[in-house]
């Protein structure tokens, strides 16, 4: 795949690539001799592959850090003597989705004495009007979007890259038949260039799609696990923030 990408760059700059041995020369030569349509297909697939790998590396680091900081946050939170101490001791965990959810809900939760004076104390609060519950729902939604961001591109790449490569394959076969029609013979020298274009386009499509699909499935599992942790924590956190004795220990 490296020499294919190098050949694509050479084809666009006008300078031939310098392969290391004869087997690589065949691949580079086939790409170099490909028509403009197949070259455009390969260039598009190369762009898909580069973007996919950039997202894979970024998401791997993001989700890994989120898992590690979540573990630290939960340990610190449940060991804290009160919510204020938990907020102070976890302030440095900026990559933890659970810590961000906790800070958002804590900021929206009214402290004792800050309720609405116009509300009758004897009437129970409607959960839909409770600012703490509203902040928890909003934070859960925002954290879910943040964790799953860019995964749609991996899914798109995994689904479309093989078909883009298939388009290059069909075009290469059409080129072979066109050459046969012009020269009036089906010799290897006539059909080989078009067949080479077709096979390279197929391989490029698969090379772009397979890592994207594998990464998407892996990251989707990680995101679902983190979402489940956040939902469970939100259920435990809600009564702590809305109870009259919220200054007590989280435990």
Automatic annotation (TrEMBL):
Record-level GO cellular component terms:
plasma membrane
| Localization in the cell | Cell membrane; Membrane
Every copy of the MotA/TolQ/ExbB proton channel domain together lies at 129-229
Q: Entry's InterPro entries? A: ExbB/TolQ_transport, MotA_ExbB_proton_chnl
- Give the signal peptide as a residue range, or say none if absent: none
PANTHER family the UniProt entry points to? PROTEIN TOLQ, TOL-PAL SYSTEM PROTEIN TOLQ
Task: Provide a GO biological process annotation.
Answer: protein import
Q: Return the annotated region ranges for Disordered.
A: 108-131
Task: Provide this UniProt record's keywords sorted from A to Z.
Answer: Cell membrane, Membrane, Protein transport, Transmembrane, Transmembrane helix, Transport
Q: What is its main location?
A: membrane
Give the protein family: Belongs to the exbB/tolQ family.
Q: Which domain of life is it from?
A: Bacteria
Membrane topology term: Multi-pass membrane protein
Official protein name in the record: Tol-Pal system subunit TolQ
Membrane-crossing segments per the record: 41-60, 151-174, 194-219
Q: Does the keyword Mitochondrion apply?
A: no
């Amino acid at each position: 795949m490296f020499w294919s990408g190098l050949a694509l760059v050479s084809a666009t700059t006008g300078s031939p690539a310098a392969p290391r041995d004869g087997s690589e020369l065949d691949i580079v030569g086939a790409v170099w001799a490909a028509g403009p349509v197949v070259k455009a297909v390969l260039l598009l697939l190369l762009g898909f592959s580069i973007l996919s790998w950039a997202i894979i590396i970024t998401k791997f680091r993001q989700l890994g850090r989120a898992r590690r900081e979540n573990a630290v946050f939960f340990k610190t939170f449940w060991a804290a003597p009160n919510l204020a101490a938990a907020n102070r001791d976890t302030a440095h965990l900026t990559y933890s989705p659970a810590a961000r959810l906790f800070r958002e809900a804590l900021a929206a939760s009214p402290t004792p004495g800050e309720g609405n004076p116009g509300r009758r104390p004897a009437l129970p609060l409607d959960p839909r009007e409770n600012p703490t519950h509203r902040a928890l729902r909003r934070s859960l939604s925002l954290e879910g979007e943040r964790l799953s961001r860019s995964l749609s591109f991996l899914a798109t790449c995994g689904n479309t890259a093989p078909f883009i490569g298939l388009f290059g394959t069909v075009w290469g076969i059409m080129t072979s038949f066109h050459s046969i029609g012009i020269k009036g013979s089906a010799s290897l020298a006539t059909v080989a260039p078009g067949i080479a274009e077709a096979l390279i386009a197929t391989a490029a499509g698969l090379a772009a799609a397979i890592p994207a699909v594998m990464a998407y499935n892996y990251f989707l599992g990680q995101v679902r696990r983190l979402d489940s942790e956040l939902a469970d924590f939100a259920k435990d956190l809600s009564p702590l923030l809305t109870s009259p004795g919220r200054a007590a220990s989280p435990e």
